[in-house]
Amino acid sequence: MSPVEGDICTKHPFGVGMQVDDIRICVVMVGLPARGKSFIAQKVVRYLDWRDIPAKVFNVGNYRRADTPQPTADFFDTSNTEGERLRRAAAEAAVTDMLEWFHQGKGIIAVLDATNSTKDRRRWIQERCAADNVATLFVESKCDDESLIMQNVMDVKTTSPDYKGLDPEVAAKDFRDRIRKYELVYETIDEDEADMTYVKLINVASQTVINRVHDYMQSRIVYYLMNLHIKPRSIWLSRHGESMYNLEGKIGGDADLSPRGEAYARSLPSLVDQSIEPGQTLTVWTSTLRRTIQTARYLVDKHGRQLPWKALDELDSGVCDGLTYEDIEAKYPEDFKARDDDKYNYRYRGGESYRDVVVRLEPIIMELERNEDILIVTHQAILRCIYAYFMNVPQERSPWMEVPLHTVIKLTPRAYGTIEERWKADIPAVSTFRTKGSSAKHQ
What we know:
Blueprint: E1 25-30, H1 37-50, E2 55-59, H2 60-65, H3 81-103, E3 109-113, H4 119-131, E4 135-142, H5 146-159, H6 168-183, E5 198-202, E6 207-211, H7 216-227, E7 235-239, H8 244-248, H9 259-273, E8 283-286, H10 290-303, E9 306-308, H11 325-331, H12 333-341, H13 354-370, E10 374-378, H14 380-391, E11 407-414, E12 417-424
Parallel strand pairs: 1-3, 1-4, 2-3, 4-5, 7-10, 8-9, 8-10
Antiparallel strand pairs: 5-6, 7-11, 11-12
């Protein structure tokens, strides 16, 4: 029997066996502009999608832009009657579409991304959702750290569709004026809303206030939010240098580096220096396998901080460990085909699937969100899963992404997406990329 049959992880992705059909939650963002709301909304949905929880962001600004694509700050003045009408209409359209999305069974978690800055607006959202049997979880991001607010202003002025094509300094001034308009009417969540389920993230989650969170899914979202911060930062990713198993076309194992892999390890500090600020140091994470520790050792000599994680070990290939893909195709032809048919869910005999890897990587993701300036040296399947989380790559495509050897990838999360940069060492390496249906004869 193929290990796919009856062996795919069909349980709830959080492993609790709950009836997900009974879950419908609207996560309602609350906060002044430049407090990281859109960043948080996007991150929550990416995390849930990564964990196989269907979710979607409903951004009220996108609805408003249909009629008013690039408004000035005056549009957000409460004395602007037409502006108030259009903004209310955008909110109503977003909520209506969100509830229809729930009715159509397209997902179980929606994130309503807007300022939702008054108690009346929040109560209206709660009542609309309750009438459709949708629970609400309000998430307020509060921040009075001026340096962080200004960093967010600078980010928004260059990435927000509201300011596309505008002079950056003009955009920044208008955005600060918009913030002042909202400050005049903003009402923080307080004891008047004690009957609501909410979490308040104060100054980048340095303080968290939680109220009436009472079910598992809400608790998971809150736990994720407590690990999330909105400070600008990047994550660096690299596979280990070319290994002896790579040269032989074998998978798995605990091989040493090849001579070219050793050359990459020696070149890695200078390659990383091209992508960091002067004087910046990184904490280096590796797997517990020799090829990643050997690759990182010169980085550790320079940066002085290194942490091996068992959770970063390569996908366990079970009985296929140490075989080439040609060997697997010849010895286990049914398995070879089954893995091509559903690579994300296929589990090696006695080993793991990509889905299994995502589950064991969750603590890594939480630590990445909690920390800054991390460089990870690990393996192809592991990097595919981590990259898919940050870049929102669909499950079915993530196991087929090419992640080349001897390359540093820098990912910088921003409010409206993640910026990717790559630096490739001038050191040849075999290609370990296998297309669907091929046996990946190594080069």
